[in-house]
Specification:
By secondary structure, the chain is mostly beta strands. It has helices at 19-28, 79-88, and strands at 2-3, 7-16, 32-38, 45-50, 56-61, 69-76, 92-100, 105-111, 117-123, 137-138. Strands 3-4-5-2-6-9-8-7 form an eight-stranded mixed sheet, with helices on one face. Strands 1-10 form a two-stranded parallel ribbon. It is globular and about 40 Å long. Bound molecules: fe (ii) ion. Residues 11, 13, 58, 71, 73, 119 line the site of fe (ii) ion (FE2).
Length: 140
């Protein structure tokens, strides 16, 4: 599959105070855990789950839920270009591009003019967080 756009929706991140129960509930719905990890900012656990078909959810462990949806993540072909493009088109930089070694990816965060948090992520080819279904390749 070739994606002509410069990005596609990769996953959504949800806060939860009981990540074990939430992950267990999602696995009963057919999702599988791709990876458990540690959140780069909070130091608390995260879990990335996949339905194996077309969707991924990131659970983020928190002490208190502040919002149902924490962020939407878009996979991009080239992070620096995508980040700069988002900022030049009205998004505010929330976190500059950085290496997320556990995910074998580079990522950054921006906020839309309405304040929504958007993650941009450029996966390495061998990233454990890449979706298990056929990944699109970027058209040149
Ligand atoms: Fe995320």
């Amino acid at each position: 599959m070739t994606v002509p756009a410069s990005a596609f929706l990769d996953h959504q991140g949800y806060e939860t105070v009981d990540i074990d129960a939430e992950a267990a509930a999602l696995t009963t719905m057919g999702m599988t855990v791709l990876r458990w990890g540690v959140h780069a900012v909070t130091g608390k656990r995260i879990a990335l789950l996949s339905d194996g078909v077309a969707s991924k959810i990131e659970l983020m462990e928190v002490d208190a839920v502040t919002g149902v949806l924490d962020h939407c993540a878009f996979a991009v072909a080239e992070l620096g270009e995508a980040h700069a493009g988002a900022v030049s088109n009205g998004c505010a930089e929330d976190r500059a591009p950085f290496r997320l070694e556990a995910a074998k990816a580079r990522t950054s965060f921006v906020r839309t003019p309405a304040g929504r948090l958007i993650q941009l992520v450029q996966y390495d080819d061998d990233s454990p967080d890449r979706a298990p279904w056929d990944q699109p390749t970027w058209s040149e």
